[in-house]
Design a protein that fits this description.
This protein is mainly beta and 121 residues long. The protein contains no helices and eleven strands.
Amino acid sequence: QVQVVESGGGLVQPGGSLRLSCAASGSIFSINSMGWYRQPPGKQRELVASITSGGRTNYADSVKGRFTISRANAKNTVYLQMNSLKPEDTAVYYCNANLRSADFVRAFDYWGPGTQVTVSS
């Protein structure tokens, strides 16, 4: 049993900032990576940022220089610092945890329920 929960979403004005948090808990043997995805209304889910267990990060071009993904010392927690927010950042943001099975033969994706981020004046 693995649970992934996001928090920190809300309403913010253009140019403002938000920090999203994600915590994975339960039967976690090994984490391959964690990341943030978002899904604007009527659009498909897209990768925003990810971080591997080794600390390598990846960002969508649309958020480079504005968003920063980081991981707590307890690696079941990840953050997304969002600065200079734009209306086009409005979406439901989902946290993903890619976990390795205990026998190392498969990896599994676990998703949080999402948190709404709305950027509007």
